[in-house]
Design brief:
The complex is a heterodimer of chains A (about 230) and B (about 400).
Chain A lengths: L1 H29 L17 H12 L2 H6 L1 H21 L9 H5 L1 H26 L5 H22 L5 H12 L10 H15 L4 H22 L6
Chain B lengths: L12 H9 L11 H6 L6 H16 L1 H6 L6 H13 L5 H5 L6 H14 L11 H8 L27 E4 L2 H6 L1 H14 L3 E2 L11 H5 L6 H14 L4 E4 L2 H9 L1 H5 L6 E4 H11 L11 E4 L3 H4 L6 H8 L5 E4 L21 H17 L4 E4 L2 H11 L7 E4 H7 L7
Parallel strand pairs in B: 1-2, 1-3, 3-4, 5-6, 5-7, 7-8
Helix pairs in contact in B: 3-5, 5-7, 10-15, 10-20, 15-17, 18-19
Classes of the chains: A mainly alpha (about 230), B alpha/beta (about 400).
Chain lengths: ~230, ~400
C-alpha cells in the first residue's frame, strides 16, 4: 500500500503544481498589457482554403518543416505518436474502457515504437548532425522522454506488467482512493520519470499553437502594410 | 502581494505568450548574424528568452505572487542587457522560428524593460534622447546641414502636394548619394512633391524605438504627422527602411489614430512612376548587380519585389541574388542601433556581404538602406575584397537623362 499511496500523492502534487503553473500563466496573460502597436489589416477571410491552411500550419508543424526538414520528420512523428500513446493510456483511467480504445490497441503499440525511435532520431540529429545549440533544459526533457518511452515499451513488449494491478492503481488515483502497488521497478521508473516530466512540462505545449497562428496571420498581413489590400 | 518590479507589465499579451512559446530548439542560431560573427551562444535568441523567463519567474511567477518577489541576479541582468543590445534586431531569428515568435518586435520591447531599469541603452545610444532633443537628429548635426550639402538645386519642392518626401537622418548625414538619388528621381518624374524644412524634418523615432527609449516618441511622431497633414499630404515617401518601418508599423500607435496619409517606399514610388510612364531610364548598364535586402524593408514591411523591379528595368542589367535574400536576408551589421556600439561585429557582418558579392562575381553591390550603406562602405575600407557599392536610388538616378541628374 505504501508505494501506491506515495506515488498517488506525488502525482496529485505534480498536477497541483501544473495547475498552479497554468493559472499563474493565465494571470500573466490576462493582466493589463500594452497594445501590440504592430500593423493590423482589416482582412477577415473565412474560407475553406484559409481554414485548411491554418490547420495544416498547426498540425503539420509547417514552420519547422521549412526551417529544418530533417528534424521536422522526427519532431512530427514524435508529437503525433505521443498523442496516440497518451490516448492509449486512457484505458487505465476508464472503467469500462470504451470499445474504440480496444480497437486502437495495435495502433497504440505501434505509436509507442514510433515515439521511441523518433526521440532517438531527434537526439541524434541534435547531437550528431546539428551540434549548434542544445539547451540543457531541452536535452533533459528529451532524455526524460526517452526514459518514459523506453520503460513503457519494455513493459509492453518484454517485461510484461500486471495490467490488472496497474489498472487498480490508476483507477485509485483517478477516484481519489489510492491503491497498493507491488509492481516492478520498471513501472516505478516509468511513473517517476513521468512525474518529473510534468514538473518540467515545456510551456510551449500551451502557447506554441497561439504563436504559430499569430505568425500565420502576421505573414498574411505583411503584404498589406505597404501595399493596398486586394480583397 | 504588491508587485512593483514586474517584467511583463509593458509587454503585449502576445509577447508574454511568445516568451513562453520558445522551445529552445536553436534553429534561429543558424541564421543569426551575431552568432555567425561571434559564435557565442550565450547571446543567442533562445538564451535571451531563457534569461528573461528567469526575470518573469522572479517577479511575476506563482511563487512570487504568493510569497513576494525574489532578488534578481545582477550578473544575469547584465548578461541579458549585453545580449539584447548586441543583437542587430534584424528579425532573421523570428523568420526561422519554428513557433513564429515575432522577434523583430520582441527584442526592442525587452530592451525597453532594461531602459526602465537603468541598464539600457548602452554606449553612444545613451546620449540619443538628449541629442535628438537638441538637434532633431541622432547624429548631433545642425539642421542647417541637413539638406544643403547634397540637395540638387534644379529640383523643385512644392509648398503643398499630395506626395511628401522624408529624407531621414541617416540618409542626409551618412548616405548622401542615396537621398540625392531619391530627390533626383522624384524630380525627374515630374510629380509634384513637398518636403518639410530642415528644422522641422526631425528624427522619425526609429533609433529611440529600437533602443527601447520610448519617452519622446509620441511627441516626435505627432510633430511630424501634423506637419505633413498641414501640407495636404496623401502619401509620404521615404527611402530609409528603418524610417519606413516605424512609420508604417508604429506611427499610428504613437499618433493615437490612423495616419492621414499612406507610407510608401521610394522604390514603390519609382516602380509606379516607371509603369505610368512618368519616369524612364534613358541609360543602360551592362553590369551584373547583386541586391542586398534591408531587414526592415523585407521582414519589417514586406517590400521585396519593387527594388528588384527597379533594377530589372535598367537596360542591360543582370541581377543575381545573395544565398539568403528576400524574407531570409542576412543583416549587413547595421541593424538595431548596434553598429556604433558593437563596431567589430558590424564590420564582420558587412564583410560577409562583400565576400559573397565578390564570390558571385557581381560587378556592383546594390544597397537600399543608409545604415547599410554607411557600414558596408566602412567594412570595405582596409579590406582585401573590393566591390563597387551603390545605393539603389543613386543607381536609378544615374540612369536618368543628363538634364535630370
Amino acid at each position: 500500500m505504501g508505494v501506491g499511496i506515495i506515488l498517488t500523492f506525488a502525482l496529485y502534487l505534480a498536477l497541483l503544481y501544473l495547475i498552479g503553473f497554468v493559472v499563474s500563466r493565465l494571470i500573466i496573460y490576462s493582466e493589463n498589457s500594452c497594445a501590440d502597436s504592430g500593423h493590423h489589416s482589416n482582412r477577415h477571410l473565412f474560407s475553406f482554403s484559409r481554414i485548411f491552411s491554418v490547420l495544416s500550419e498547426l498540425l503539420l508543424l509547417k514552420r519547422l518543416m521549412k526551417a529544418n526538414p530533417l528534424l521536422w520528420v522526427g519532431e512530427w512523428l514524435f508529437h503525433v505518436s505521443f498523442v496516440f500513446v497518451l490516448l492509449r493510456h486512457l484505458r487505465y483511467f476508464m472503467e469500462p474502457a470504451p470499445a474504440w480504445l480496444f480497437d486502437f490497441e495495435v495502433f497504440g503499440i505501434i505509436s509507442g515504437f514510433i515515439l521511441f525511435v523518433s526521440l532517438i532520431f531527434i537526439l541524434a540529429v541534435k547531437l550528431l548532425v546539428e551540434r549548434a545549440y542544445l539547451s540543457s533544459y531541452n536535452f533533459s526533457l528529451l532524455a526524460m522522454l526517452v526514459v518514459i518511452s523506453a520503460t513503457g515499451l519494455l513493459m509492453t513488449m518484454i517485461f510484461k506488467t500486471d495490467l490488472v494491478e496497474i489498472k487498480f492503481f490508476s483507477m485509485g488515483m483517478a477516484t481519489f482512493a489510492p491503491q497498493a502497488l507491488h509492481d516492478s521497478g520498471l513501472f516505478l521508473s516509468h511513473f517517476i520519470a513521468f512525474l518529473v516530466f510534468v514538473l518540467f512540462l515545456p510551456s510551449h505545449i500551451f502557447t506554441a499553437p497561439i504563436t504559430i497562428l499569430e505568425a500565420f496571420r502576421r505573414d498574411e498581413e505583411l503584404e498589406t502594410i505597404m501595399h493596398d489590400e486586394t480583397k | 502581494m504588491k508587485r512593483n518590479n514586474s517584467f511583463t507589465k509593458d509587454l503585449s499579451r502576445q509577447q508574454r505568450i511568445e516568451i513562453d512559446a520558445c522551445t529552445q530548439c536553436g534553429e534561429c542560431l543558424k541564421c543569426c548574424p551575431v552568432q555567425e560573427v561571434t559564435g557565442n551562444p550565450k547571446i543567442s535568441p533562445p538564451e535571451k528568452i531563457r534569461m528573461f523567463r528567469e526575470f518573469i519567474k522572479a517577479t511575476d511567477g506563482l511563487k512570487s505572487r504568493l510569497f513576494g518577489q525574489s532578488e534578481i541576479d545582477k550578473k544575469l541582468l547584465e548578461d541579458f542587457t549585453n545580449a539584447v543590445y548586441e543583437c542587430t534586431v534584424c528579425g532573421a531569428c523570428g523568420e526561422a522560428c519554428t513557433v513564429g515568435i515575432h522577434t523583430q518586435r520582441l527584442w526592442p520591447m525587452l530592451r525597453r524593460e532594461m531602459v526602465k531599469r537603468g541598464l539600457g541603452p548602452i554606449g553612444p545610444q545613451t546620449k540619443m534622447q538628449e541629442v535628438i532633443t537638441n538637434t532633431g537628429n541622432p547624429y548631433n548635426k545642425p539642421a542647417s546641414e541637413r539638406f544643403s550639402p547634397w540637395f540638387p538645386e534644379h529640383v523643385r519642392v512644392e509648398e503643398k502636394a499630395d506626395i511628401a518626401y522624408y529624407a531621414g537622418c541617416t540618409g542626409v548625414y551618412e548616405a548622401q548619394p542615396m537621398v540625392k538619388g531619391d530627390v533626383l528621381v522624384l524630380g525627374a518624374s515630374g510629380i509634384p512633391f513637398t518636403m518639410l524644412p530642415p528644422e522641422d524634418e526631425v528624427c522619425c523615432g526609429f533609433p529611440l524605438f529600437i533602443t527601447g527609449q520610448h519617452d519622446m516618441l509620441e511627441g516626435l511622431v505627432k510633430r511630424l504627422v501634423d506637419a505633413y497633414a498641414a501640407r495636404g499630404v496623401k502619401t509620404l515617401v521615404c527611402s530609409c527602411p528603418c524610417c519606413v518601418n516605424i512609420m508604417a508599423r508604429d506611427w499610428p500607435a504613437f499618433y493615437g489614430k490612423e495616419l492621414p496619409f499612406k507610407i510608401r517606399h521610394i522604390t514603390q514610388f519609382t516602380v509606379d512612376a516607371l509603369n505610368s510612364g512618368a519616369l524612364r531610364f534613358k541609360r543602360g548598364l551592362n553590369e551584373r548587380l547583386i541586391y542586398h535586402d534591408p531587414c526592415y524593408l523585407t521582414r519589417g514591411v514586406g517590400v521585396i519585389e519593387e527594388p528588384r523591379a527597379v533594377l530589372k528595368s535598367i537596360p542591360g542589367v543582370e541581377l543575381v541574388e545573395f544565398e539568403r535574400h528576400g524574407m531570409n536576408s542576412r543583416c549587413c551589421g547595421s541593424g538595431g542601433a548596434a553598429r556604433k556600439v558593437f563596431h567589430e561585429n558590424a564590420i564582420a557582418m558587412g564583410r560577409l556581404a562583400i565576400d559573397e558579392a565578390v564570390a558571385k562575381k557581381a560587378d556592383r553591390l546594390i544597397l537600399a538602406c543608409p545604415a547599410c550603406y554607411a557600414k558596408v562602405n566602412e567594412a570595405m575600407a582596409d579590406y582585401d575584397n573590393k566591390i563597387i557599392i551603390t545605393d539603389i536610388m543613386e543607381l536609378a538616378a544615374g540612369m536618368l537623362e543628363e538634364e535630370d541628374r
